[in-house]
């Protein structure tokens, strides 16, 4: 396994046209479809970084900032910003592009945590990340804080799971 890799080595760029079958009753891209695109793109970025099987451990909130209309291109970019031992934080940026005017809007941002697993499904070590651009450096520097927040949130979820399991 390589010791460390550049963020650019995990970069995934995915562009699709929004067809009528992808939309909700308002003629804009269905949120669940966009979430599937985000997970898919993040998973490929993580596998490019780790060159291992991976699972999605968590997704931070996804705020839908701007609607993506039927006929627009939906453009996703994802790359690994930071790693722990087996976990990788993946940043996903979603833009909508009007293919006639060229106008683009940032529609959503998301951070996902993917975990590399071995042949027994157990977490396994991944290479470190070397940030190069200003964007990569800024995401890398702020990642530890987000990882701490996720740990806290996971504990809270586990407490909730205990509580609601007993109610069922
Ligand atoms: C691509 C797909 O769609 S996969 C389908 C959806 N995903 C799944 O089914 C995953 C189900 N969950 C699991 O399999 C397990 O909980 C795993 C593999 C994610 C973690 O396994 P655990 O036995 O809990 O391992 P452990 O507690 O050692 O955590 C391993 C790493 O994951 C991180 N992690 C675990 N849970 C979370 C979480 N909810 N959020 C963020 N990071 C997490 C840990 O911090 C740790 O990171 P590190 O190695 O960098 O320090």
Would you kindly provide a written description of the structure presented here, covering whatever features stand out?
With 168 residues, the protein is α+β, with helices and mostly antiparallel strands. It has a single domain, classed as Hotdog Thioesterase (Thiol Ester Dehydrase, Chain A). Helices cover 32% and strands 33% of the residues. It has helices at residues 31-50, 134-167, and strands at residues 4-6, 12-17, 53-59, 73-83, 87-97, 104-117, 128-130. The protein has a 5-stranded antiparallel sheet. Strands 1-7 form a two-stranded parallel sheet. The longest helix is centred in the last third of the chain and has 34 residues, at 134-167. It is globular, with a radius of gyration of 17 Å. The model has no long low-confidence stretch (mean pLDDT 96). Bound molecules: acetyl coenzyme *A. Residues 134-148 have a biased composition (Basic and acidic residues). Residues 8-120 form the HotDog ACOT-type domain. GO terms for molecular function: long-chain fatty acyl-CoA hydrolase activity.
What's a concise summary of this model?
It is built from 2 helices and 7 strands.
Q: Strand order of the main beta sheet, please?
A: 2-4-5-6-3
Coarse shape: globular
- Taking all residues together, what is the mean pLDDT? 96
Order of helix and strand elements from N to C terminus: EEHEEEEEH
């Amino acid at each position: 396994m390589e010791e460390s890799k550049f963020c650019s080595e995990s970069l995934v760029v995915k562009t699709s046209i929004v067809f009528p079958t992808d939309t909700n009753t308002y003629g804009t891209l269905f949120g669940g479809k966009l979430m599937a695109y985000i997970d898919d793109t993040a998973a490929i970025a993580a596998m490019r970084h780790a060159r291992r099987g991976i699972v999605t451990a968590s997704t931070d909130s996804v705020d839908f900032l701007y609607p993506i209309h039927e006929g627009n291109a939906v453009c996703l970019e994802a790359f690994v910003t930071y790693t722990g031992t087996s976990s990788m934080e993946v940043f996903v940026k979603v833009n909508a592009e009007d293919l006639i005017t060229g106008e683009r809007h940032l529609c959503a941002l998301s951070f996902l945590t993917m975990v590399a697993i071995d042949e027994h499904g157990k977490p396994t070590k991944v290479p470190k990340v070397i940030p190069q651009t200003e964007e990569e450096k800024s995401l890398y520097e702020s990642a530890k804080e987000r990882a701490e927040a996720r740990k806290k949130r996971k504990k809270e979820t586990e407490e909730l799971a205990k509580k609601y399991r007993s109610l069922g």
